[in-house]
Amino acid sequence: MGGNCQVSSTLYNAVLSIPTLKVIERSEHGKEVGYVPKGKDAAVSYGSLDFKFKNDNNYKIKLNLTTDDKNITATIFKIEN
Fold first, then answer.
1. The CA-based dihedral angle spanning residues 62, 19, 53, 43, taken in that order and rounded to the nearest 10 degrees
2. What pLDDT, on a 0 to 100 scale, did the predictor assign at position 72?
3. How far apart are CA 50 and CA 70, in angstroms?
4. Quick one: which of 52, 15, 59, 55 has its CA closest to 36?
5. Which helix (H) or strand (E) segment is 9 a member of?
6. φ, ψ for residue 14 (rounded to 5)?
7. Based on the structure, what is the number of domains in the chain?
C-alpha cells in the first residue's frame, strides 16, 4: 500500500544508488511505511513536501518507472550523447 509516496520513495532509492546524483530535498514520514526500510522513504505532499534531486553530470539521464499490481521499479539510465 503506497501511492505517491511509494513512487517517490522508490525513485529516492534509485537515486541513492548513483553516487553522482545529489538529493536536494527529501522528507521522511512521521511513521514507518511498509514498502521500504526505515529511513529509506521520501514523503511527498502537494504544496508542502517534495522529493528533488539534481543531475550534475555532463550527460542526461532517463527515468524509467514500471509497476505491476504490487511493485514499483525505478531504473535510471545514462543517455549517451
1. 110
2. 92
3. 23
4. 15
5. helix 4-16
6. -65, -40
7. 1
